[in-house]
Amino acid sequence: MTLLPLPLSDSPRKATHVATRALRRPYPKRLLGRSAHTGGGFSIIELLVAIIIIGVLVTVLLPVISGRTEQARVSRVQSDLENLSESMERVAIDTGFYVRLIALDDVLRGDGVPFNRGLPGDPINRADGLTDYLIGQVWYQFPTPNSLFINPATGDFATGVTRVNIINRLLQAETVFDGSMQWGGPYINWQQDENLYDGELGKTGVPTDPWGNDYIFFTRRGMLLEPNGIFIESAGERTGGGFEQGGQFDTLVFDRPTIVSLGPNGRPGDGSGTGREGTFGGGDDFARSFGR
């Protein structure tokens, strides 16, 4: 170890003072790893390392988060289908009929205001009661008692004397439809959107699945097309969403009442229209059958 001589001094005391100042002198900031001009901030290398670490974490965690989100949607759709099918069975026990999905949240008597047709000047009203179905029947897409209650034995709408009896009972604000059968709604805890028959917006008043698509009701007669209220044997995809009568997708695919979610892809089956996997209930669709 080399010893450096102390600076010459006039006195030993002064020499000691000089030596002490030399030992206390701070190191230059550049020797501490940061430039004096950085103001104590992070260096470019440190920032790059942080960005790389964040990128790696996002790459690893994003698929995990997305997977859990999709699992939550699957759990919800399975729960929805179970609740909807059980609600339909309760309706059948109470009334002797199934009903369109739009009626499951209804009480018996509404507020006496007809449904909004999605036209300027029409009253805005949430579908809240069965008796409202009889008011303002001036638009072909309005549900009527003829296209509301479904015979479990045939899978088709109630007709003839049965239909007339239902109309009379509703007009009298009675709860009894046939013998001891009574309406006990609402059967689900869900309320339809206002403007529910706005065709331009695609609103049909039907409960929607976790991917934002309408649940669809099928019987042996085919698919119940909403908001038209008719059974169709084949369906085509309509521009802007929803379906129309006639098309590449077969709807005569269930021999029992069935409620279907179109799943993540929002299309019947795999969307091909070919074979069982290419139509309703195939591919990534979810379906729940019930009754007879």
What's a quick, concise take on this entry?
The protein has helices spanning 12-24, 44-95, 160-171, and strands at 98-99, 149-150, 176-178, 181-182, 216-219, 222-225, 230-232, 234-237, 243-245, 249-250, 258-261, 286-289. It has 292 residues and is α+β, with helices and mostly antiparallel strands. It is elongated, with a radius of gyration of 36 Å.
Question: What can you tell me about this protein's structure?
Answer:
With 292 residues, the protein is of the alpha+beta class. The protein has one domain. The chain is built from three helices and twelve strands, in the order ααββαββββββββββ. The chain has a five-stranded antiparallel β-sheet with strand order 7-6-5-11-12, covered by helices on one side. A three-stranded antiparallel β-sheet has the order 9-8-10, with no helix packed on it. A two-stranded antiparallel sheet has the order 1-2. The chain is elongated, with a radius of gyration of 36 Å. The N terminus is likely disordered.
